[in-house]
Amino acid sequence: MQTHQFDCLIVGAGGAGLMAALHASKGTKTAVLSKLYPTRSHTGAALGGIGAALGNLEEDRWEWHAFDTIKGGDYLTDQDAADILAREAIDAVIDLEHMGLPFDRTEDGKISQRRFGGHTNNETGKPVRRACHAADRTGHMILQTLYQQCIKNNVNFFDEFHVVDLIKNGDRYAGVAAINIDTGELHLFQGKAIIFATGGWGKVWEVTSNAHSLTGDGAAICFRRGVPMEDMEFYQFHPTGLYPTGFLITEAVRGEGGVLLNGRGERFMEKYAPKIKDLASRDVVSRAIYTELKEGNGIKGQRYVHLDVTPATVNRYLAEAGETRRIDEHFIESKLAETVDQGRTYAGVDPVREPMPIQPTAHYAMGGIPTNNDGSVIADAQNTPIPGLYAAGECACVSVHGANRLGTNSLVDLVVFGRRAGIHANDYVKQAEFVPLPPDAGKEIEAELKRIRISSGKTRPAILRARMQTTMMDNVGVFREKPNMEKALDTLRELKESFKKDLTVDDRGSRFNTDVLEAWELGCLLDIAEVTAISALNRQESRGGHARDDFPKRDDVNWLKHTLAHLQPDGQITIDYKPVVILKYQPKERVY
Ligand SMILES: Cc1cc2nc3c(=O)[nH]c(=O)nc-3n(C[C@H](O)[C@H](O)[C@H](O)COP(=O)(O)OP(=O)(O)OC[C@H]3O[C@@H](n4cnc5c(N)ncnc54)[C@H](O)[C@@H]3O)c2cc1C
Q1: Which of 137, 254, 282, 539 is catalytic?
Q2: Could you tell me if the CB of 43 is within 6 A of ligand 1?
Q3: Where are the alpha helices (DSSP H) in 246-345?
Q4: I need a surface site. Which of 251, 372, 396, 487 has the fewest CB within 10 A?
Q5: What CATH class is the domain 443-551?
Q6: Is it the case that residue 590 has pLDDT exceeding 90?
Q7: Ligand 1 centroid – CA 40 distance (Å)
């Protein structure tokens, strides 16, 4: 096994990993390991915008952004983290602009901003323009900009290196083990600091906006090596996935005036969120769509509703609202270029001329690897930091998104908390020693990968994956209740047994063996699905993205607390709790 040594190791080259790398690498030897070529990371798919209270088009304040984040998170958000996110977002966006990110502009040359769900003027309750954007390719631009900066700053990249284990020596973390996908060889990387920035795990569910690569590797690896998982029951279903693929249609469509219509042609969000209607937070809109479908109000009785951004419809509702603004076809083609392309390519629908068929789609993990505000991974409910271990981005739980993330706040999270993790790791490695790699480093994972490669059971990974995805969609989706979640857990345990005892793969070679790596990723997905279902079954209330039919109300007396799930040596998962940081805002009922 080849061994490498770096002060700082970063696993993942999306927005969070690259931002962390940029700051961690100042005066240190830093490496980024990524299973994808960096600019193919999922951050590149982010469309609509990055939130910051710049106030370029109308009055806005970072305090309003912080409050919207806390309210959007259904008061499970740690309020100190929300303050940091909203305050530092402003500098972070200006920083990106100075690095060369080509934001859209207002007529007087400022960064252009658009509306997004849950972002409001706290005094009037009306939507506010807070989402800074580069057309609807904002994530793509962030990724390209940060990658160029990392190259300029001599960050070392190990592209297409698939990290498969976290190496421990006693109770200290010493490095990671990674497969060079090209050769199939296992490499050991020793690092004083390790930052996980591996993104989310939408592939746990059947209908998802997430790419094939989003399999929760980083979270699963940490969980297996003693790190608890925080608030895993909170998974966001984005209201507007294309029907039937789940491909995401950005909230920016509604931000620019698009409306949701049911099979009766009604703008049904007027019933569920009378004040901000289609721009209510995502959990509220997703539940409204499911309720409409349940009541038989889908389009032609089917399992979808319409998202209509055609000029005729948008202009009618703008006029009704007393707004003077009007849109035309050119406006949609330029401001929502990706969306128009996606509608035409993936649904055979032209969004400029006809409404798009949509359904809720599994989208974003609010929970994950628990960290403090500096990106340090914490070990327990007392917030004890684990020396040298960090996490940032979607795989981490700061917790700034609480029970439900607002649109545009993930990109802010990546740059604000990615930067914090990088700066803190940089300070740490300057005074820390390397933890020695143990003599048997990498042996256990080498044996596991060999087991998968030579396995001779009857079941292909794709079969197990499909069963896991439908089980999770049906039983641990937008609406949940005890018997269904128990059924899901039984199925997941059965699937885990098959994964151990009855697996088979086709490719027995070593070079570019994606068959084996995808099977290994399935193991991660199954672990993540199990801890999600257990955490969801445990939480007996409804809050944000976790809606229980059998406990339909939020219960602040018993459940205003974060879940921490721990994997015990015997494979059992136990749960304890961590208090929510409440500063200025006492929890109250969420009304939009
Ligand atoms: C379609 C879509 C649109 C979105 N639009 C917006 C938006 O407009 N605004 C907003 O705020 N948010 C948006 N989001 C959410 C946001 O894009 C993501 O939450 C965010 O980009 C995640 O960034 P990340 O850096 O944490 O992870 P990612 O960008 O997913 O990167 C993960 C990285 O980890 C690497 N990796 C993973 N596993 C391993 C492993 N085992 N070994 C080595 N490397 C590994 C990958 O190669 C990749 O480089 C959107 C999401 C989707 C799906």
Answers
A1: 282
A2: yes
A3: 252-255, 269-272, 282-294, 311-320, 329-335, 337-342
A4: 487
A5: mainly alpha
A6: no
A7: 10
